[in-house]
Design goal:
The complex is a heterodimer. Chain A is an alpha/beta fold. Chain A is built from nine helices and ten strands. In chain A, a hairpin with a 2-residue loop joins β9 (218-223) and β10. Chain A is globular, with a radius of gyration of 19 Å. Chain B is mostly helical. Chain B has one domain (2-213). Chain B has helices at 2-28, 35-51, 56-79, 85-104, 121-126, 135-155, 158-168, 170-175, 180-206, 217-231, 240-261, 267-282, and strands at 108-110, 208-210. A two-stranded antiparallel sheet of chain B has the order 1-2. Classes of the chains: A alpha/beta, B mainly alpha. The interface between A and B is medium-sized, with 33 and 22 residues.
Protein backbone atom coordinates (compact mmCIF):
# COMPACT_ATOMS: atom_id res chain seq x y z
CA UNK A 1 0.00 0.00 0.00
CA UNK A 2 1.31 3.41 -0.98
CA UNK A 3 0.13 6.45 0.94
CA UNK A 4 0.71 10.12 0.30
CA UNK A 5 -0.22 12.01 3.45
CA UNK A 6 -0.67 15.78 3.67
CA UNK A 7 1.77 16.51 0.87
CA UNK A 8 2.71 20.15 0.37
CA UNK A 9 4.70 21.18 -2.64
CA UNK A 10 5.75 24.69 -3.63
CA UNK A 11 7.72 25.69 -6.65
CA UNK A 12 10.19 28.59 -6.33
CA UNK A 13 9.48 29.09 -2.63
CA UNK A 14 10.35 32.50 -1.24
CA UNK A 15 10.34 34.24 -4.61
CA UNK A 16 7.69 36.30 -6.41
CA UNK A 17 7.14 33.30 -8.64
CA UNK A 18 6.15 31.10 -5.74
CA UNK A 19 3.54 28.63 -6.84
CA UNK A 20 1.71 26.23 -4.65
CA UNK A 21 1.01 22.96 -6.37
CA UNK A 22 -0.04 20.57 -3.62
CA UNK A 23 -1.73 21.78 -0.50
CA UNK A 24 -2.56 18.94 1.84
CA UNK A 25 -2.69 16.38 -0.95
CA UNK A 26 -3.71 12.87 0.14
CA UNK A 27 -3.81 9.68 -1.86
CA UNK A 28 -3.87 6.01 -0.96
CA UNK A 29 -3.11 3.32 -3.47
CA UNK A 30 -3.93 -0.24 -2.46
CA UNK A 31 -1.81 -3.20 -3.46
CA UNK A 32 -2.72 -4.55 -6.87
CA UNK A 33 -4.34 -1.36 -8.10
CA UNK A 34 -3.57 -0.12 -11.60
CA UNK A 35 -4.21 3.61 -11.44
CA UNK A 36 -4.49 5.66 -14.61
CA UNK A 37 -3.87 9.34 -14.01
CA UNK A 38 -5.07 11.98 -16.45
CA UNK A 39 -5.14 15.75 -16.30
CA UNK A 40 -4.06 18.84 -18.17
CA UNK A 41 -0.50 20.12 -18.26
CA UNK A 42 0.65 21.53 -14.95
CA UNK A 43 -2.01 19.70 -12.97
CA UNK A 44 0.60 17.90 -10.89
CA UNK A 45 0.62 14.42 -12.43
CA UNK A 46 4.32 14.17 -13.05
CA UNK A 47 5.14 16.11 -9.88
CA UNK A 48 3.19 13.49 -7.96
CA UNK A 49 5.28 10.71 -9.53
CA UNK A 50 8.47 12.64 -8.87
CA UNK A 51 7.54 13.11 -5.22
CA UNK A 52 6.78 9.41 -4.84
CA UNK A 53 10.10 8.44 -6.41
CA UNK A 54 12.07 11.12 -4.60
CA UNK A 55 13.24 12.89 -7.75
CA UNK A 56 11.98 16.15 -6.28
CA UNK A 57 11.51 16.96 -2.59
CA UNK A 58 8.14 17.81 -1.04
CA UNK A 59 7.97 20.71 1.40
CA UNK A 60 5.77 18.79 3.78
CA UNK A 61 3.94 15.52 4.32
CA UNK A 62 4.74 11.85 4.38
CA UNK A 63 5.13 9.13 1.79
CA UNK A 64 4.55 5.67 3.19
CA UNK A 65 4.95 2.27 1.61
CA UNK A 66 3.24 -0.51 3.57
CA UNK A 67 2.93 1.87 6.49
CA UNK A 68 6.64 2.66 6.59
CA UNK A 69 7.63 6.28 6.07
CA UNK A 70 10.09 6.55 3.17
CA UNK A 71 10.15 10.37 2.94
CA UNK A 72 13.74 10.46 4.18
CA UNK A 73 15.03 7.88 1.70
CA UNK A 74 17.00 9.12 -1.28
CA UNK A 75 15.76 8.49 -4.81
CA UNK A 76 18.11 5.61 -5.50
CA UNK A 77 17.14 3.92 -2.22
CA UNK A 78 13.44 4.13 -3.04
CA UNK A 79 14.13 2.68 -6.46
CA UNK A 80 14.87 -0.69 -4.89
CA UNK A 81 11.12 -1.32 -4.73
CA UNK A 82 10.06 0.94 -7.57
CA UNK A 83 10.42 0.46 -11.31
CA UNK A 84 9.92 3.47 -13.53
CA UNK A 85 9.50 3.98 -17.26
CA UNK A 86 9.90 7.50 -18.59
CA UNK A 87 8.36 9.35 -21.50
CA UNK A 88 11.72 9.57 -23.25
CA UNK A 89 12.68 6.06 -24.44
CA UNK A 90 16.38 6.98 -24.16
CA UNK A 91 16.19 7.32 -20.38
CA UNK A 92 15.39 3.70 -19.65
CA UNK A 93 18.33 2.08 -21.41
CA UNK A 94 22.04 2.59 -21.87
CA UNK A 95 22.75 3.46 -25.53
CA UNK A 96 26.47 2.61 -25.73
CA UNK A 97 25.98 -0.85 -24.27
CA UNK A 98 24.62 -3.89 -26.06
CA UNK A 99 21.15 -5.35 -25.52
CA UNK A 100 22.69 -8.24 -23.61
CA UNK A 101 24.68 -5.90 -21.37
CA UNK A 102 21.59 -3.81 -20.69
CA UNK A 103 19.58 -6.87 -19.74
CA UNK A 104 22.38 -8.07 -17.46
CA UNK A 105 22.55 -4.68 -15.76
CA UNK A 106 18.80 -4.68 -15.10
CA UNK A 107 18.83 -8.29 -13.96
CA UNK A 108 21.26 -7.43 -11.18
CA UNK A 109 19.10 -4.68 -9.65
CA UNK A 110 18.84 -5.04 -5.90
CA UNK A 111 22.07 -7.03 -5.66
CA UNK A 112 25.56 -5.65 -5.31
CA UNK A 113 27.50 -4.59 -8.39
CA UNK A 114 30.85 -6.13 -7.50
CA UNK A 115 33.69 -7.73 -9.38
CA UNK A 116 31.75 -10.72 -10.67
CA UNK A 117 31.32 -11.16 -14.40
CA UNK A 118 28.93 -8.56 -15.76
CA UNK A 119 26.96 -11.02 -17.87
CA UNK A 120 25.85 -14.32 -16.42
CA UNK A 121 26.06 -16.72 -19.37
CA UNK A 122 23.51 -19.04 -17.80
CA UNK A 123 20.88 -16.28 -17.97
CA UNK A 124 21.27 -15.50 -21.67
CA UNK A 125 18.55 -17.94 -22.69
CA UNK A 126 16.19 -16.36 -20.19
CA UNK A 127 16.91 -12.87 -21.59
CA UNK A 128 16.36 -14.17 -25.09
CA UNK A 129 13.03 -15.65 -24.10
CA UNK A 130 11.98 -12.41 -22.40
CA UNK A 131 12.93 -10.37 -25.46
CA UNK A 132 11.19 -12.72 -27.86
CA UNK A 133 7.84 -12.10 -26.16
CA UNK A 134 8.12 -8.49 -27.31
CA UNK A 135 7.83 -9.72 -30.88
CA UNK A 136 10.31 -7.11 -32.11
CA UNK A 137 13.07 -9.50 -33.12
CA UNK A 138 15.41 -8.14 -30.45
CA UNK A 139 16.33 -11.64 -29.31
CA UNK A 140 18.47 -12.05 -32.45
CA UNK A 141 20.33 -8.80 -31.88
CA UNK A 142 21.77 -9.43 -28.44
CA UNK A 143 25.15 -7.93 -29.33
CA UNK A 144 23.76 -4.81 -30.99
CA UNK A 145 24.18 -1.51 -29.17
CA UNK A 146 20.89 -0.18 -27.82
CA UNK A 147 21.71 3.25 -29.26
CA UNK A 148 20.86 2.08 -32.77
CA UNK A 149 17.40 0.78 -31.85
CA UNK A 150 14.23 2.75 -32.55
CA UNK A 151 12.31 4.56 -29.83
CA UNK A 152 9.64 1.87 -29.66
CA UNK A 153 12.20 -0.92 -29.37
CA UNK A 154 14.03 0.98 -26.66
CA UNK A 155 10.84 1.68 -24.75
CA UNK A 156 9.88 -1.99 -24.89
CA UNK A 157 13.29 -2.83 -23.50
CA UNK A 158 12.99 -0.15 -20.83
CA UNK A 159 9.68 -1.66 -19.75
CA UNK A 160 11.16 -5.13 -19.64
CA UNK A 161 14.25 -3.94 -17.76
CA UNK A 162 12.34 -2.02 -15.13
CA UNK A 163 10.11 -4.99 -14.33
CA UNK A 164 12.71 -7.73 -14.55
CA UNK A 165 13.56 -7.94 -10.86
CA UNK A 166 10.94 -8.14 -8.09
CA UNK A 167 9.54 -4.65 -7.51
CA UNK A 168 6.45 -3.49 -5.66
CA UNK A 169 5.47 -0.48 -7.73
CA UNK A 170 5.59 0.32 -11.39
CA UNK A 171 5.55 3.99 -12.28
CA UNK A 172 4.74 4.86 -15.88
CA UNK A 173 5.31 8.49 -16.78
CA UNK A 174 3.54 9.04 -20.13
CA UNK A 175 5.51 6.10 -21.39
CA UNK A 176 3.69 5.87 -24.72
CA UNK A 177 3.63 9.60 -25.48
CA UNK A 178 6.75 9.66 -27.65
CA UNK A 179 5.75 6.66 -29.76
CA UNK A 180 3.76 6.29 -32.96
CA UNK A 181 0.15 5.04 -32.48
CA UNK A 182 0.89 1.47 -33.51
CA UNK A 183 3.96 1.12 -31.31
CA UNK A 184 2.15 2.87 -28.46
CA UNK A 185 -0.60 0.27 -28.72
CA UNK A 186 1.96 -2.52 -28.60
CA UNK A 187 3.73 -1.07 -25.58
CA UNK A 188 0.39 -0.57 -23.82
CA UNK A 189 -0.65 -4.20 -24.38
CA UNK A 190 2.75 -5.32 -23.20
CA UNK A 191 2.44 -3.16 -20.10
CA UNK A 192 -0.93 -4.66 -19.28
CA UNK A 193 0.42 -8.16 -19.73
CA UNK A 194 3.42 -7.57 -17.48
CA UNK A 195 1.34 -5.83 -14.81
CA UNK A 196 -1.14 -8.70 -14.72
CA UNK A 197 1.52 -11.40 -14.80
CA UNK A 198 3.61 -9.90 -12.03
CA UNK A 199 0.64 -8.46 -10.12
CA UNK A 200 2.31 -5.07 -9.88
CA UNK A 201 0.78 -2.06 -8.23
CA UNK A 202 0.93 0.50 -11.02
CA UNK A 203 0.53 4.22 -11.49
CA UNK A 204 0.29 5.33 -15.10
CA UNK A 205 0.21 8.95 -16.16
CA UNK A 206 -1.15 9.38 -19.66
CA UNK A 207 -2.64 11.98 -21.96
CA UNK A 208 -4.43 9.31 -23.90
CA UNK A 209 -7.97 9.15 -22.44
CA UNK A 210 -8.72 5.92 -24.27
CA UNK A 211 -5.77 4.16 -22.63
CA UNK A 212 -6.80 5.62 -19.30
CA UNK A 213 -10.28 4.13 -19.71
CA UNK A 214 -9.23 0.85 -21.27
CA UNK A 215 -6.45 -0.11 -18.92
CA UNK A 216 -6.31 -0.18 -15.17
CA UNK A 217 -8.89 -0.54 -12.46
CA UNK A 218 -8.85 2.98 -11.07
CA UNK A 219 -9.02 6.37 -12.73
CA UNK A 220 -7.72 9.60 -11.28
CA UNK A 221 -8.14 13.02 -12.81
CA UNK A 222 -5.84 15.70 -11.50
CA UNK A 223 -6.50 19.42 -11.61
CA UNK A 224 -4.46 22.14 -9.96
CA UNK A 225 -2.87 19.80 -7.48
CA UNK A 226 -6.06 17.97 -6.54
CA UNK A 227 -7.67 14.74 -7.55
CA UNK A 228 -11.04 15.93 -8.85
CA UNK A 229 -12.13 12.53 -10.04
CA UNK A 230 -11.34 9.21 -8.42
CA UNK A 231 -13.22 6.15 -9.65
CA UNK A 232 -12.46 2.56 -8.75
CA UNK A 233 -13.54 -0.79 -10.13
CA UNK A 234 -17.15 -0.97 -11.39
CA UNK A 235 -17.59 2.78 -11.06
CA UNK A 236 -14.67 3.26 -13.38
CA UNK A 237 -15.75 0.64 -15.90
CA UNK A 238 -19.21 2.24 -16.19
CA UNK A 239 -17.70 5.54 -17.30
CA UNK A 240 -17.13 6.25 -20.98
CA UNK A 241 -14.43 8.26 -22.72
CA UNK A 242 -17.08 10.90 -23.41
CA UNK A 243 -17.89 11.32 -19.72
CA UNK A 244 -14.23 11.88 -18.95
CA UNK A 245 -13.76 14.18 -21.90
CA UNK A 246 -16.73 16.28 -20.78
CA UNK A 247 -15.25 16.71 -17.32
CA UNK A 248 -11.89 17.42 -18.88
CA UNK A 249 -13.39 20.20 -20.99
CA UNK A 250 -15.13 21.72 -17.98
CA UNK A 251 -11.90 22.12 -16.05
CA UNK A 252 -10.14 23.39 -19.12
CA UNK A 253 -12.76 26.10 -19.64
CA UNK A 254 -12.43 27.01 -16.00
CA UNK A 255 -8.74 27.67 -16.60
CA UNK A 256 -9.48 29.66 -19.71
CA UNK A 257 -7.83 27.14 -22.04
CA UNK B 1 66.14 2.81 -34.66
CA UNK B 2 66.77 4.63 -31.39
CA UNK B 3 64.28 7.23 -32.56
CA UNK B 4 61.57 4.61 -33.03
CA UNK B 5 62.30 2.90 -29.72
CA UNK B 6 62.19 6.19 -27.89
CA UNK B 7 58.81 7.01 -29.47
CA UNK B 8 57.43 3.60 -28.51
CA UNK B 9 58.69 3.93 -24.94
CA UNK B 10 57.30 7.41 -24.46
CA UNK B 11 54.11 6.66 -26.33
CA UNK B 12 53.35 3.58 -24.28
CA UNK B 13 54.17 5.22 -20.94
CA UNK B 14 51.77 8.02 -21.82
CA UNK B 15 49.45 5.27 -23.02
CA UNK B 16 48.85 4.26 -19.40
CA UNK B 17 47.88 7.88 -18.74
CA UNK B 18 45.64 7.79 -21.79
CA UNK B 19 43.84 4.72 -20.40
CA UNK B 20 43.00 6.80 -17.34
CA UNK B 21 41.82 9.74 -19.43
CA UNK B 22 39.78 7.31 -21.52
CA UNK B 23 37.80 6.37 -18.39
CA UNK B 24 36.98 9.94 -17.42
CA UNK B 25 36.57 11.51 -20.86
CA UNK B 26 34.95 8.72 -22.84
CA UNK B 27 33.23 6.55 -20.26
CA UNK B 28 32.29 8.99 -17.50
CA UNK B 29 31.98 12.04 -19.79
CA UNK B 30 33.79 13.98 -17.07
CA UNK B 31 36.42 16.58 -18.11
CA UNK B 32 38.91 15.70 -15.41
CA UNK B 33 41.78 18.15 -15.04
CA UNK B 34 43.03 16.37 -11.91
CA UNK B 35 45.30 14.55 -14.38
CA UNK B 36 47.74 17.47 -14.52
CA UNK B 37 48.27 17.00 -10.79
CA UNK B 38 47.94 13.25 -10.40
CA UNK B 39 50.56 12.51 -13.09
CA UNK B 40 53.33 14.32 -11.15
CA UNK B 41 51.84 12.91 -7.93
CA UNK B 42 52.92 9.47 -9.16
CA UNK B 43 56.36 10.94 -9.81
CA UNK B 44 56.57 12.60 -6.40
CA UNK B 45 55.58 9.41 -4.59
CA UNK B 46 58.18 7.53 -6.62
CA UNK B 47 60.90 10.08 -5.86
CA UNK B 48 60.10 9.97 -2.16
CA UNK B 49 60.13 6.18 -1.86
CA UNK B 50 63.02 5.50 -4.24
CA UNK B 51 65.33 7.87 -2.39
CA UNK B 52 64.16 6.08 0.77
CA UNK B 53 65.43 2.83 -0.75
CA UNK B 54 62.10 1.10 -1.39
CA UNK B 55 61.62 -1.64 -3.98
CA UNK B 56 60.87 0.23 -7.23
CA UNK B 57 58.10 -2.19 -8.25
CA UNK B 58 56.33 -1.56 -4.98
CA UNK B 59 56.39 2.18 -5.65
CA UNK B 60 54.25 1.54 -8.72
CA UNK B 61 51.48 0.19 -6.53
CA UNK B 62 51.86 3.05 -4.07
CA UNK B 63 51.72 5.57 -6.91
CA UNK B 64 48.50 3.96 -8.16
CA UNK B 65 47.00 4.12 -4.67
CA UNK B 66 47.98 7.78 -4.24
CA UNK B 67 46.44 8.67 -7.60
CA UNK B 68 43.28 6.81 -6.65
CA UNK B 69 43.02 8.88 -3.47
CA UNK B 70 43.43 12.07 -5.53
CA UNK B 71 40.64 10.86 -7.83
CA UNK B 72 38.41 10.10 -4.86
CA UNK B 73 38.98 13.66 -3.60
CA UNK B 74 37.97 15.12 -6.97
CA UNK B 75 34.91 12.89 -6.91
CA UNK B 76 33.95 13.91 -3.39
CA UNK B 77 34.32 17.60 -4.27
CA UNK B 78 32.08 17.08 -7.29
CA UNK B 79 29.50 14.76 -5.74
CA UNK B 80 29.28 15.84 -2.10
CA UNK B 81 30.04 19.57 -2.43
CA UNK B 82 28.14 19.77 -5.75
CA UNK B 83 30.93 21.61 -7.54
CA UNK B 84 30.96 21.49 -11.35
CA UNK B 85 33.03 18.62 -12.78
CA UNK B 86 35.53 20.88 -14.54
CA UNK B 87 36.07 23.04 -11.44
CA UNK B 88 36.45 20.03 -9.12
CA UNK B 89 39.36 18.87 -11.27
CA UNK B 90 40.94 22.34 -11.31
CA UNK B 91 40.71 22.58 -7.52
CA UNK B 92 42.42 19.23 -7.05
CA UNK B 93 45.03 19.98 -9.70
CA UNK B 94 45.95 23.21 -7.92
CA UNK B 95 46.05 21.56 -4.51
CA UNK B 96 48.19 18.71 -5.82
CA UNK B 97 50.94 21.07 -6.96
CA UNK B 98 51.72 21.91 -3.33
CA UNK B 99 51.11 18.36 -2.13
CA UNK B 100 53.58 17.08 -4.75
CA UNK B 101 56.19 19.58 -3.55
CA UNK B 102 55.69 18.40 0.04
CA UNK B 103 55.93 14.74 -0.94
CA UNK B 104 59.01 15.09 -3.13
CA UNK B 105 60.68 17.65 -0.86
CA UNK B 106 61.85 19.90 -3.69
CA UNK B 107 60.83 20.81 -7.20
CA UNK B 108 63.51 18.63 -8.74
CA UNK B 109 64.67 15.23 -7.50
CA UNK B 110 67.32 13.42 -9.53
CA UNK B 111 67.10 9.62 -9.32
CA UNK B 112 70.31 8.69 -11.14
CA UNK B 113 71.84 6.61 -8.38
CA UNK B 114 68.63 4.90 -7.31
CA UNK B 115 67.40 1.46 -8.31
CA UNK B 116 64.42 1.76 -10.65
CA UNK B 117 62.10 -0.66 -12.38
CA UNK B 118 64.31 -0.28 -15.46
CA UNK B 119 67.72 -0.52 -13.84
CA UNK B 120 68.35 -2.67 -10.80
CA UNK B 121 70.64 -5.49 -9.75
CA UNK B 122 68.15 -8.31 -10.23
CA UNK B 123 67.25 -7.08 -13.68
CA UNK B 124 70.82 -6.74 -14.98
CA UNK B 125 71.46 -10.38 -14.02
CA UNK B 126 68.25 -11.56 -15.66
CA UNK B 127 68.30 -9.81 -19.01
CA UNK B 128 70.74 -11.34 -21.53
CA UNK B 129 73.46 -9.14 -23.02
CA UNK B 130 71.98 -9.06 -26.51
CA UNK B 131 68.72 -7.31 -25.69
CA UNK B 132 69.98 -4.91 -23.01
CA UNK B 133 69.16 -1.97 -25.30
CA UNK B 134 65.50 -2.99 -25.32
CA UNK B 135 65.12 -3.54 -21.58
CA UNK B 136 63.18 -0.33 -21.02
CA UNK B 137 60.84 -0.96 -23.92
CA UNK B 138 60.16 -4.55 -22.82
CA UNK B 139 59.36 -3.51 -19.26
CA UNK B 140 57.12 -0.70 -20.48
CA UNK B 141 55.26 -3.11 -22.76
CA UNK B 142 54.76 -5.56 -19.90
CA UNK B 143 53.37 -2.83 -17.65
CA UNK B 144 51.12 -1.44 -20.36
CA UNK B 145 49.74 -4.87 -21.25
CA UNK B 146 49.04 -5.67 -17.59
CA UNK B 147 47.26 -2.33 -17.08
CA UNK B 148 45.22 -2.74 -20.24
CA UNK B 149 44.15 -6.31 -19.49
CA UNK B 150 43.18 -5.47 -15.93
CA UNK B 151 41.16 -2.49 -17.14
CA UNK B 152 39.46 -4.58 -19.84
CA UNK B 153 38.59 -7.24 -17.27
CA UNK B 154 37.24 -4.62 -14.88
CA UNK B 155 35.01 -3.09 -17.53
CA UNK B 156 33.40 -6.50 -18.03
CA UNK B 157 32.48 -6.89 -14.34
CA UNK B 158 29.17 -5.79 -12.85
CA UNK B 159 30.89 -2.81 -11.29
CA UNK B 160 32.41 -2.01 -14.70
CA UNK B 161 29.01 -2.21 -16.35
CA UNK B 162 27.66 0.29 -13.86
CA UNK B 163 30.60 2.62 -14.55
CA UNK B 164 29.89 2.49 -18.28
CA UNK B 165 26.20 3.15 -17.63
CA UNK B 166 26.73 6.18 -15.40
CA UNK B 167 28.44 8.24 -18.10
CA UNK B 168 25.91 7.21 -20.67
CA UNK B 169 22.69 7.48 -18.73
CA UNK B 170 22.96 8.45 -15.06
CA UNK B 171 19.19 8.11 -14.56
CA UNK B 172 19.41 4.42 -15.35
CA UNK B 173 21.93 3.94 -12.54
CA UNK B 174 19.52 5.60 -10.12
CA UNK B 175 16.74 3.38 -11.47
CA UNK B 176 18.92 0.39 -10.65
CA UNK B 177 18.87 1.58 -7.03
CA UNK B 178 22.52 2.65 -7.05
CA UNK B 179 23.95 6.03 -6.10
CA UNK B 180 25.41 7.61 -9.24
CA UNK B 181 27.80 9.71 -7.17
CA UNK B 182 29.56 6.67 -5.74
CA UNK B 183 29.94 5.13 -9.18
CA UNK B 184 31.53 8.35 -10.48
CA UNK B 185 33.93 8.41 -7.55
CA UNK B 186 35.02 4.83 -8.29
CA UNK B 187 35.62 5.79 -11.92
CA UNK B 188 37.69 8.83 -10.99
CA UNK B 189 39.72 6.75 -8.54
CA UNK B 190 40.66 4.15 -11.15
CA UNK B 191 41.35 6.80 -13.78
CA UNK B 192 43.67 8.87 -11.61
CA UNK B 193 45.29 5.72 -10.24
CA UNK B 194 46.32 4.84 -13.80
CA UNK B 195 47.49 8.41 -14.47
CA UNK B 196 49.59 8.40 -11.34
CA UNK B 197 51.01 4.99 -12.27
CA UNK B 198 52.04 6.46 -15.61
CA UNK B 199 53.72 9.33 -13.72
CA UNK B 200 55.69 6.84 -11.66
CA UNK B 201 56.86 4.90 -14.71
CA UNK B 202 57.74 8.12 -16.53
CA UNK B 203 59.73 9.39 -13.58
CA UNK B 204 61.71 6.16 -13.32
CA UNK B 205 62.42 6.14 -17.01
CA UNK B 206 63.61 9.76 -17.05
CA UNK B 207 65.44 9.18 -13.76
CA UNK B 208 64.29 12.54 -12.44
CA UNK B 209 61.21 14.03 -10.79
CA UNK B 210 60.18 17.48 -11.98
CA UNK B 211 57.32 19.38 -10.37
CA UNK B 212 56.25 20.69 -13.78
CA UNK B 213 56.17 17.26 -15.45
CA UNK B 214 52.37 17.21 -15.34
CA UNK B 215 51.79 20.47 -17.19
CA UNK B 216 49.84 19.61 -20.28
CA UNK B 217 49.42 15.95 -19.33
CA UNK B 218 45.68 16.18 -19.88
CA UNK B 219 46.24 17.46 -23.42
CA UNK B 220 48.45 14.48 -24.23
CA UNK B 221 45.91 12.15 -22.70
CA UNK B 222 42.95 13.68 -24.53
CA UNK B 223 44.81 13.77 -27.84
CA UNK B 224 45.72 10.09 -27.49
CA UNK B 225 42.17 9.09 -26.64
CA UNK B 226 40.69 11.10 -29.50
CA UNK B 227 43.24 9.91 -32.07
CA UNK B 228 42.81 6.32 -30.97
CA UNK B 229 39.05 6.24 -30.83
CA UNK B 230 38.46 8.21 -34.03
CA UNK B 231 41.13 6.45 -36.10
CA UNK B 232 39.89 3.02 -35.18
CA UNK B 233 36.19 3.51 -34.64
CA UNK B 234 35.42 1.48 -37.76
CA UNK B 235 37.38 -1.49 -36.44
CA UNK B 236 34.90 -3.01 -34.04
CA UNK B 237 37.19 -5.93 -33.30
CA UNK B 238 39.80 -3.64 -31.79
CA UNK B 239 39.02 -2.84 -28.17
CA UNK B 240 38.81 0.85 -27.30
CA UNK B 241 41.59 0.42 -24.75
CA UNK B 242 43.94 -0.91 -27.45
CA UNK B 243 42.92 1.92 -29.77
CA UNK B 244 43.78 4.44 -27.06
CA UNK B 245 47.25 2.93 -26.58
CA UNK B 246 47.94 3.04 -30.32
CA UNK B 247 46.60 6.61 -30.34
CA UNK B 248 49.13 7.55 -27.71
CA UNK B 249 52.04 6.14 -29.74
CA UNK B 250 50.77 7.85 -32.90
CA UNK B 251 50.53 11.15 -31.05
CA UNK B 252 54.05 10.87 -29.65
CA UNK B 253 55.34 9.99 -33.11
CA UNK B 254 53.68 13.07 -34.61
CA UNK B 255 55.17 15.31 -31.96
CA UNK B 256 58.62 13.73 -32.30
CA UNK B 257 58.63 14.09 -36.08
CA UNK B 258 57.45 17.68 -35.84
CA UNK B 259 60.13 18.49 -33.27
CA UNK B 260 62.87 17.19 -35.56
CA UNK B 261 62.12 20.06 -37.90
CA UNK B 262 61.57 22.80 -35.33
CA UNK B 263 63.29 24.25 -32.31
CA UNK B 264 62.43 22.83 -28.87
CA UNK B 265 60.66 26.07 -27.89
CA UNK B 266 58.06 25.31 -30.52
CA UNK B 267 56.97 22.15 -28.64
CA UNK B 268 53.81 23.49 -27.00
CA UNK B 269 52.69 25.33 -30.12
CA UNK B 270 53.16 22.18 -32.17
CA UNK B 271 51.19 20.26 -29.56
CA UNK B 272 48.37 22.78 -29.73
CA UNK B 273 48.23 22.78 -33.53
CA UNK B 274 48.37 19.00 -33.65
CA UNK B 275 45.60 18.75 -31.10
CA UNK B 276 43.43 21.14 -33.07
CA UNK B 277 44.07 19.21 -36.27
CA UNK B 278 43.11 15.96 -34.56
CA UNK B 279 39.90 17.48 -33.20
CA UNK B 280 38.88 18.86 -36.58
CA UNK B 281 39.73 15.67 -38.45
CA UNK B 282 38.15 13.48 -35.81
CA UNK B 283 35.00 15.66 -35.78
CA UNK B 284 35.11 15.30 -32.02
CA UNK B 285 34.06 18.92 -31.57
CA UNK B 286 30.52 18.04 -32.57
CA UNK B 287 30.26 15.64 -29.71
CA UNK B 288 27.13 15.57 -27.62
CA UNK B 289 26.26 18.73 -25.77
CA UNK B 290 26.36 18.30 -22.06
CA UNK B 291 23.03 18.83 -20.42
CA UNK B 292 23.82 18.31 -16.77
CA UNK B 293 27.06 20.27 -16.52
CA UNK B 294 25.82 22.04 -13.41
CA UNK B 295 25.09 18.92 -11.43
Amino acid sequence: MLELKHIHKYYNPGTVNEMCLFQDFNLTIEDGEFVSVVGSNGSGKTSMLNIICGSIPAEGGQICIGGKDISKEKEYQRNRRIGRVYQNPAVGTCPSMTILENMSLADNKGKSYGFGRGTNKARIDYYREQLSQLGLGLEDKMDVKVGVLSGGQRQAMALLMSTMTPIEFLILDEHTAALDPKTAELIMQLTDKIVKEKKLTTIMVTHNLRYAMEYGNRLLMMHQGEAILDKKGEEKYSMSVDDVLKLFNEISIECGN
Amino acid sequence: MDFVISILEQGLIYGILALGVYITYKILDFPDLTVDGSFPLGGAITAYFLTGGMNPYLTLLLAFAAGAVAGICTGLIHVKCRVRDLLSGIIMMTALWTINLYVAGTANVPLFSQQTIFKNDTLSNMIPEGIQAYTTLIIVIVLVVISKILLDLYLETKSGYLLRAVGDNPTLVTSLAKDQGNVKIVGLAIANGLVSLAGSVFCQEERVFEISMGTGAIVIGLASVIIGTSLFKKLTLLKATSAVLIGSVVYKACVAIALRNFEPQAMKLITAVLFLAILVLGMERRKKVKTDAGA
